[in-house]
Structure formats: C-alpha cells, structure tokens
Amino acid sequence: MKGWLRADGRKGIRNTVVVAYLVECAHFVASEIVAGFRDQDVQLIGFPGCFPNEYAARMMERLCTHPNVGAVLFVSLGCESFDKVRAANAVDASGRPVKTLVIQKSGGTRATVQAGRDWVAGALTQIAGVPRVVMGVHELIVGTVCGGSDGTSGISGNPAAGRAFDLLVAEGAACIFEETGELIGCEEIMAARAITPELGQALRDSVQKAERYYATLGYGSFAAGNAAGGLSTIEEKSLGAYVKSGDSPISGLIKPGDVPPQGGLYLMDVVPDGEVRFGFPNISDNAEIVEMIASGAHLTLFVTGRGSVVGSAISPVIKICANPDTYRALADDMDVNAGDIIEGTRSIAEVGREIRDLVVAVAGGAKTKSEDLGHREFILTYKSFEPIGPACLPGAA
Amino acid sequence: MTGPFLLLHDADNVLVARANAPEGLEVGLESGPVRLTRPIPMAHKIARHAIAAGEAILKYGMPIGIATQDIAPGAHVHIHNIRSAYTATHALQDADGISAGVSR
C-alpha cells in the first residue's frame, strides 16, 4: 500500500481538504463551501462553541495536521473566541496549504461561500501533487470503538476486533482502544496486562476517575438501546467492550491528541481531569472517533450490535456488525458480518483475519461502506485535560 | 446445553440466547428441562440454575451485577431482577427486547 507523505514524515491513507468552522455561527457557510464538492474529498469539521477552550484548540490543530489531511480552510465568523491565528500557524508550519476566511470581513454568506469554493478548488489541484510513497502496516494507527452495543457485541464483534488488533500489533501497528467509562469493572484484569506496574496503576486510576465522573453525572455510559439488546448493567457492557482490546500487552495510556510514539496497544483516557465540567465526556460515538483521529488514527474499527450507520470525517470507519439479524437488516451499511460467529458459521479467528485484511485494503484506498455512502460525521465539544503522567508511556524512547 | 443458548464460561449462572427463543420452548438445563415462560430475544440471558436474591450474576466468568430477587432456572435475567454494582441502568419501554419502543 502507498501513503501520502507529509512534511513531518507521517503518511496518510487519504488526501482530504478539510473545511473547519470555528464557531456554530460559521457552520452553515462552511457546509455550503463543502457542498460544492460532493464527489471530491472535501470534508466538513468544526467546533461550535464561542468560549475559548485549550482542549478544543489542541484537538483542532491535531485534526488539521492529521496525515490524512492535505489542506485546510478555516471559516470564522470573526468575533468568536477561537484563536484562528494560532490554528492557521500550526497548519502552515506543517507544510500544508491553509487559508482563513472571516465572514464579517468577506462580504457575508454569498461572497464567503464563493471565496471558499475558489480556494478549495485551488487546494485540490495543489495537493494532487503530494507524493505517494510505500507505506507499511507498521506505520498505521488504528482505533476501535463500539456503539449501539447489544448482547452480541461482546461475543462476536468485539472479540473479532480484538483478534484483528492482536494481528495488527504483531505487525508493528499502533492500536488504540478507549472509553474508560465502558471499562468499569475491568480495571484489575486490564492493569495486569500493562508492561510496567506503574502503567498498570495509571490504567486502574483512569477507570476509577471515569467511575467517579459518571457517578456525579448520574448516568453510566449506557444507552437505553443497550438494555433492549440484552445488556443489563454497565459492567456487563464493559466486559463485552473490553475484549475489543485483544490479548496484546498494553504499552501505554494516552489522552486525546497524544500520538502513540511507536507500535503497540494503547488505552485512550477520554474522561476529563479535575472536577466535573462541561457535561458528559463523550456525548455520542463520533466524539470518541474524533479523539482517536486526533491521536493519529488512520482508520477506526466500529463494532455495533444494534446497528450504527455512521462514518467519520478525516479517517475511514470500518463497521463490524456483531448481530446477524442487524446485519441482514442493515447490510448496505456494514463492512463485516461478525454475526456469523453467533450463528456458528465462522470462527472469531476467521472474522478477525477478515478485519485485519480489510484494514490493509482500506489503508490502500478501498472505500468503506460509510465512505461510499458519503457519511462524514464529526463532533467536537468542550473538555479539559491535564497532560499524561510519567508512568503512561514507559516504552517511549 | 440444548437449544439456542450459549454457556460463555463454566462459572457462569446465566446462559445467552444465540437466536430468538420462543415462549414455551423446552430448554435442557443441568437441573432438568424447563419451558420458557416468555420469548427470549437474541443476546438476552436466562438463569442457568436457581439464583438467590443478593447473589452475583456471572457472565464471561465475571460479575455483571447482583440479583435483586430470587430467580428461577430458565427465567429471563435482565434489568427487572438484577442491578449494577456500579451505576443504575437507564432503560426505556423497549428494554424487554420485544416492545418496539415507538408509539403507534
């Protein structure tokens, strides 16, 4: 497979122009710019808030300098608090074409949409010249998430995703699993897999933080549909979700935006630090996907039982359906039928191998179902994090 | 086990439906055959044997909750008779896995 070579040496599996609104007030104008490029790789992302937030600023910089991104257009209303100069400087320093349009200074909606489309058209031509070079599996970063889980997720889809992770880690890839709020009850067995005792304690602490956080909010990371699908408690959901991580040793604990320093398996701590502010940690599945992309994920494995249809901006989503009935109902949206495991027609190892092979095919340019359908979901909200502690990346050079 | 139920771990006191199981279906448990008193949707659980109130529910060999009442062999094990040891479960009208969860 080949990747687009970026100035920092990282390689992308896509070459996308990102149009990013910097406050909800600029959302429509940004989406109108993107609407002019329906069949080209131009994607909308953005941050809705008008208050400043270091997490959002850092996430936006990481996303806009992701290896799958070739060029960036920022769309500002003009009076919002987002530091658009800092963001544009970060993209510029990464060697990518970047432009900022301020609606209040560009003549309003119509003129800004036209200026934006003109710039994007030029950027597409410019980034078509970015060199494609040989890329190995060891250069991939792969995330995993489960959403719309049911009682099949932990028996078929998640174990198969875990098997794929084991294969990818053995080939040198960096794999990220996450949602510490859905690891409640698994902290001890997980800590035992850490490559150092200190990292093990950090993993345990991250889950305990999640437990406190959700207790304050009054709801676990558990949707009503999980119960309809046969899951009775958060710890039952957690045990099913945990097996997505496979059997590899855990090499590190990262937070959103931290890029894994080398291959291996990493837990992403997605629950904010400090007292409870800004509400629920991840208000929907795409918030988790976006955070893994900010940590460099080239693509994401999404395991669903009830049946999610989402994709993502920037990095493709491979959807693995755990439930055979859901697969039959939503086959157009699903890349992998792990329901075969429930029905006994294929083994976990066989489906795990299919997922690993599909990761390589998608990295090589094959489109996922959600990409082909045009799904480009994106969500970024307020959070607050402290940097990771010294025990979190023991293997880093 | 007979029929569409899976035992995921030897220590478990629940079995998981690998397909929708109709009401009245005879299921061979270690204590003898029982008939399902309600349909059990795919991926829902039944009791492998009698479970006393206060006992831990084991699935994958791990605790997934606590029985809030005595549960008979073959009975549906779900939010009406078990609770989380951590956070209360949020559910809507469709939690039985059968109701549509939408108004007509």
Do you know the CATH architecture of chain B? Roll
Helix content of chain A: 25-40%
Q: First CA to last CA of chain A: what distance?
A: 27 Å
Radius of gyration of chain A, in angstroms, nearest whole number:
20 Å
Identify the overall geometry of chain B. Answer: globular
Briefly note the structural class of the backbone of chain B: mainly beta
The number of helices of chain B is 0
What is the subunit organization of this protein? Answer: heterodimer
Name the poorly predicted regions of chain B: none
Total number of β-strand segments of chain B?
A: 9
Radius of gyration of chain B: 13 Å
Q: List the helices and strands of chain A in order.
A: EEEHEHEHEHEEHEHHHHEEHEEHEHHH
Shape of chain A: globular
Q: Would you report the number of β strands of chain A?
A: 14
Number of helices of chain A: 14
Overall average pLDDT of chain A: 96
Q: How do the SSEs of chain B run, as a string of H and E?
A: EEEEEEEEE
**Which two chains touch over the largest interface?**
A-B, 33 and 37 residues
Percent of residues of chain B in beta strands?
A: 25-35%
CATH topology of chain B: Archaeosine Trna-guanine Transglycosylase, Chain: A, domain 4
Q: Describe the largest sheet of chain A.
A: 7 strands, parallel
InterPro entries (chain A): GD_AH_C, GD_AH_second, UxaA_altronate/galactarate_dh
Domain D-galactarate/Altronate dehydratase second (chain A): 3-126
Protein name (chain A): Hydrolase
Keywords (chain A): Hydrolase, Lyase
